[in-house]
Specification:
The chain is of the alpha/beta class and about 150 residues long. It contains three helices and eight strands; from the N terminus they run βαββββαβββα. Strands 1-4-3-2 form a four-stranded mixed β-sheet, covered by helices on one side. A four-stranded mixed β-sheet has the order 5-8-7-6, with helices on one face. The longest helix is centred in the last third of the chain and has 12 residues. It starts with 7 loop residues before the first strand and ends in a 10-residue tail after the last helix.
Length: about 150
């Protein structure tokens, strides 16, 4: 018995239709379900498919405050400017990048309308671990023995 992966991600939002535009128009998700006026769960909900991941969005009380807890989606670095433009057009709060070391991969961070933080990341776990190992290895000064 073992976990085979992530089943789905669920986010609770104040305005389901506004958030649906963010997922579809901003991130390119495909809407696959809308409960309409017949919810089968705790509240009205929509399901999306994004990069092979099932994302559930339900109406309810949004997060009371922001934090660094987030979900990161993998993207190609060349796609980051287009995502930035699409998200900007929707009025989401694009955040400044955090400090990074070389080789860690580029990211675009943004908060949705309900204080959820998301990251579009152009990097891999292997690349990040390699960058961190390289940052821990001192670089010899000219003339020093390695």
């Amino acid at each position: 018995m073992s976990i085979s992966g992530i089943s789905h991600l669920t986010f609770v939002v104040h305005d389901l239709d506004r958030t649906a535009r963010l997922w579809v128009d901003g991130l390119g998700a495909r809407e696959v379900y809308d409960s309409g006026d017949r919810p089968h769960s705790l509240s009205r909900e929509k399901f999306f498919e994004l990069g092979g991941v099932w994302v559930a969005v339900m109406e309810g009380e949004p997060l009371p405050q922001r934090s660094y807890r987030h979900v990161a989606f993998a993207v190609e670095v060349a796609a980051l400017p287009a995502y930035r433009a699409r998200l900007d057009a929707l009025g989401v709060d694009i955040r400044p990048p955090r400090p990074r070391i070389e080789g860690e991969g580029e990211s675009l961070y943004f908060h949705d309308f309900d204080n959820h933080l998301f990251e579009l990341h152009a990097g891999t776990l292997a690349a990040r671990l390699q960058a961190y190992r390289a940052a821990l290895t001192p670089t010899p000064l000219p003339g020093e023995e390695g």
